[in-house]
Design a protein that fits this description.
The chain is mainly alpha-helical and about 150 residues long. It has helices at about 5-20, 30-35, 40-55, 80-85, 90, 110-125, 130-135, 140-145, and strands at about 55-60, 65-70. The radius of gyration is 17 Å and the shape is elongated.
């Protein structure tokens, strides 16, 4: 499990990357995504519906239904997915969870976490799902485990 993001957010990122890697203009069945990524079906359904409500995915019911990207893969950033699922709390909250931590009352790791947090945000905001899939194709070990290559 990630240190920063929830399990739900990890699953969202994996599912969107899987859908992106499929590269078709059609819809990907949720059962396929669930089976390939080994994510519980009902948990995944809630995650993907949330992403659909935010416009990051499109959904369609019926035998040829499923989920597809809501826009071009080069227009969907990792940050948009993270923000849709986990919010932007990691950008504003103390990494230690101290409610009194802030600019006027910094905890011992406040300054360093601020630098790291800014770097994480920049990476997530600049990296699109299209670019991620492209990079995963060049790394077969990871791409194969994610069923992307």
């Amino acid at each position: 499990m990630s240190v920063i993001f929830s399990r739900q957010c990890e699953y969202a990122l994996q599912a969107v990357l899987y859908i992106t890697a499929k590269g078709s203009n059609g819809y990907t069945d949720i059962k396929e995504i669930s089976n390939k990524l080994e994510i519980p079906h009902h948990f995944l359904a809630k995650i993907l519906q949330n992403l659909s409500k935010r416009g990051l995915l499109r959904s369609q019911k019926g035998p040829s239904g499923g989920f597809a990207l809501g826009s071009d893969p080069d227009d969907i950033t990792l940050y948009q997915i993270v923000e849709a699922i986990d919010g932007d709390g990691f950008l504003t909250q103390c990494v230690l969870g101290l409610p009194i931590c802030g600019g006027n009352n910094p905890c011992p790791v406040h300054e360093r976490w601020g630098e790291l947090r800014d770097d994480i945000y920049k990476m997530l905001a600049e990296k699109t799902v299209g670019k991620m899939v492209e990079e995963l194709h060049s790394k077969p070990g990871i791409g194969e485990k994610m069923h992307i290559v």
